[in-house]
């Protein structure tokens, strides 16, 4: 339906089919929807939560991996300043929580390192020009 231009709708708190797939742990559905529109991973509900927040809180490791691989931001803050990493820490199943925390933290460190490296290159280049 989405391929044919059917308008996407959200429920009363802003959750779309994409978000519900994350909440329920359907990694294959998320993968399919991300092929249609990679920007889904950046969308938020009315509380500022992304699909990564929802999947992290539920402890769905495969879903978290799909979202992170598609560019979801592991440092995204919701309306209460909660990151997906913090949401993962509130997962009620300890084994799941640890797996998700490990994945989210790894992606956070990689993105932080890459950003720092880019900033250093720009600053070094500017210094050479002076």
TrEMBL record:
State the InterPro entries in the record.
Ankyrin_rpt (IPR002110), Ankyrin_rpt-contain_sf (IPR036770)
Q: Where are the ANK repeats?
A: 47-79
**Source superkingdom:** Eukaryota
Q: Which PROSITE patterns match?
A: ANK_REP_REGION, ANK_REPEAT
- Record-linked Gene3D superfamilies: Ankyrin repeat-containing domain
Keywords, in A-Z order: ANK repeat, Repeat
* A family per Pfam: Ank_2
- PANTHER family given for it? ANKYRIN REPEAT CONTAINING, ANKYRIN REPEAT DOMAIN-CONTAINING PROTEIN 16
Q: What is this protein called?
A: Uncharacterized protein
Species of origin: Gongylonema pulchrum
